[in-house]
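Archive transcription. Copying these from loose printouts into the bound notebook so they stop getting lost. Printout 1 of 2:
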Amino acid sequence: MPYLANLPTDLLTRAAKIRLAVFDVDGTLTDGRLWYGEDGRETKVFHVHDGLGLKRLQANGVQVAIITARISHPVALRAEELDIAHVYQGQGDKRICLQQLLDALHLAPEQAAFTGDDLPDLPPMRIAGLAVAVANAHPWVAEAAHWQTARSGGMGAVREVCDLILHAQGRSDAERERWQ
């Protein structure tokens, strides 16, 4: 996986501490486009690679959470399908939501990763021990990140974050063996 080659030691140290991986939705788990049917119902497209990455994080003891400003039924469905217990929709202040989640789980900020793409993601990124921006993130978000994915939101970027965390925690070889 070329995106895991030659990573800085500081980044690997940060990723090794992660016990909670938090993701924005629109522009991160999706490509950011909003789709509405003729009946007004919203649909979203999620990448299957991201889903498996999230399941593998959970299987390796890393909790997964979603914090998003919008409220969307497709997000609830996808989270349920992936067994994501921590889903927070309609969050106007994602930093407060992240801090409350950290408190509830008795985790320190350095044990959390936050991945996002746009300005509302900056406040939680600033407190997370590992801040990640997707490839097509707003420039200010990319500037605030400890790492930026090679892939865009909704196109496998979340899988890269999952792979980074597993790699830094020394679990990549076991994961590869699992699928042999």
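Printout 2 of 2:
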Amino acid sequence: MESSMSTVSAGMLLFLIMDPLGNIPLFLALLRNVRPERRRLVLVREMIIALVVLFVFLFGGQYLLHVLQLKQESVGIAGGIVLFLIGVRMIFPPKEGGVFGDSQGEPFIVPMAIPGVAGPSAMAAVMLLANSNPGRTVDWSVALFVAWLATAVILLSSTYLYRWLGSSVLTAIERLMGMLLVALSVQMFLDGVVAYLHPVR
């Protein structure tokens, strides 16, 4: 991931990875068995937990990479591959669905906060951002918070969006987001390969 990535580009990348539109059916299914008066409270709680987890990876990720002795280039290439697979999965979702649809009771942390919002790909992305340019932690923090806020607004409005847009429109939008994520992942992969082949002396 290039250190020249703008705050806006980073925010867009994180927003696409969090995939709020794709999470709407999952969240609605999980909240189905929660008392109506507690649904919004539960959703807000899970979103805050996800934000805290992502900030932990943003600020502590570079130390983890240092301990594991991973180079920025290798992490960038690996991140590009992972995000490519996530994007492809968004474009061509698996046939089986509703893995958590029959959950009983009130969800806590899993699967709404993790991996619903703060999934492995989002954690890896914030680690990549922090490692790409540690001096821009404030920029990455702003990008993460804005992406999270946009995700939270969409998920808090999930009931209305699902009724208004319908499953077909939501699916189409999610696949478009998947296309954008695939393009970003390819660019990340190529940046990592170029940086590896032509390291800055």
